[in-house]
Design a protein that fits this description.
The complex is a heterodimer of chains A (about 120) and B (about 110). Chain A has about 120 residues and is mainly beta. Chain A contains no helices and 11 strands. In chain B, strands 2, 4, 5, 6, 8, 9 and 10 form a 7-stranded mixed beta sheet that branches. Chain B is globular and about 35 Å long. Classes of the chains: A mainly beta (about 120), B mainly beta (about 110).
Chain lengths: ~120, ~110
Amino acid sequence: QVQLQESGPGLVKPSGTLSLTCAVSGGSISSNNWWSWVRQPPGKGLEWIGEIYHSGSTNYNPSLKSRVTISIDRSKNQFSLKLSSVTAADTAVYYCVRDDPRPTWGQGTRVTVSS
Amino acid sequence: EIVLTQSPGTLSLSPGERATLSCRASQSVSSTYLAWYQQKPGQAPRLLIYAASSRATGIPDRFSGSGSGTDFTLTISRLEPEDFAVYYCQQFGSSPWTFGQGTKVEIK
């Protein structure tokens, strides 16, 4: 079955850019699915960041749209998240998700924004 | 944006009791894209129910989902010790995806 694994730096400086990658295994990123990023600040609920289709089409949460870029690399079977101008409020566990009537989630990666 | 409101915020019950969790949407949600998750501290959300009423792989039959339109329910027929956790509903049929704020099921 499809598995997702997030990776990237666990610490990002304020005003910097958070960059994460989600590696997809057990299936093709070019399948008929959208691929999303979701985050969860410490002690808080879940927030959808945005999604991408293998064609490169994207949808973003309006609350983050000005700072978010999601891209896809079909040759590596992975997709990526970039979040710019980060602050402490962007400290969270970040999850990648395969959009499907039966969603598949990665295990998440913790990112802390601190100097 | 579709707002999902979960109630109650906290449910205090004893093992063996029945738990009924509500998720109400601000506008109609496609049942195909309504899911329920369980989350324990330090863990990723675990998919319990998808398409409003289908149990995910490996989920015990004491968990069931129902509802349509704007009102959805997750029922745990008899609480086991491992069921005490936070539960979230999610809709992903209309962008932006949204989640409920969560219901904490705690031991009474």
